[in-house]
Structure prediction request, 198 residues.
Amino acid sequence: MDVEQSGIAGHWVFTPRRFADDRGHFLELFTQTSLQEATGRDLHLAQTNLSVSHRGVLRGVHYADVPPGQAKYVTCVAGAVLDVVVDLRVGSPTFGRHEAVLLDAVTQRAVFVAEGLGHAFLSLQDGSTVVYACSTGYSPGAEHGVHPLDADLAIDWPTTDEAGEPLRPLLSPKDEAAPSLSAALAAGALPVFAPDGA
Prediction:
């Protein structure tokens, strides 16, 4: 598996090696060894989620209270999504910065998202299916969001698809009502950067 760290501490991109023949292909989507060697940590699996989205659906930017936080290992097994990680950790050298990675069924890349980082994705095709393994289970009172279209985040979400057709983001009511980054910061709702953490 090929591994590269993004410009945000705690965010890694994993590209599996595909073994193909006339029957199809095989790959190792996740190995604890690869994660441990790259990040120096293990992913203790508490929950696995599967999300199927229509073209244009925008989910996030989501994060959980730290501690305990929620680390995620995310991949797209059908369709394609633009996966975005935002550093929401107050005091981090890259606070407010984001990194985007195309996750699709062709490359079958995956990303590791450490605790305290915000996560979002935009579905680029109908039926885009995202699977993510989580270090902690869902806890409604500890789950939060920042508005993904906040101008201060300056995320360059695609406005057209591969065919040049307009792509308009569709948000859930909860994500639509999420605060801006500055409002979440002013409310003291964001996690704090721990240099020895992610």
Notes: The chain is about 10% helix and 35% strand.
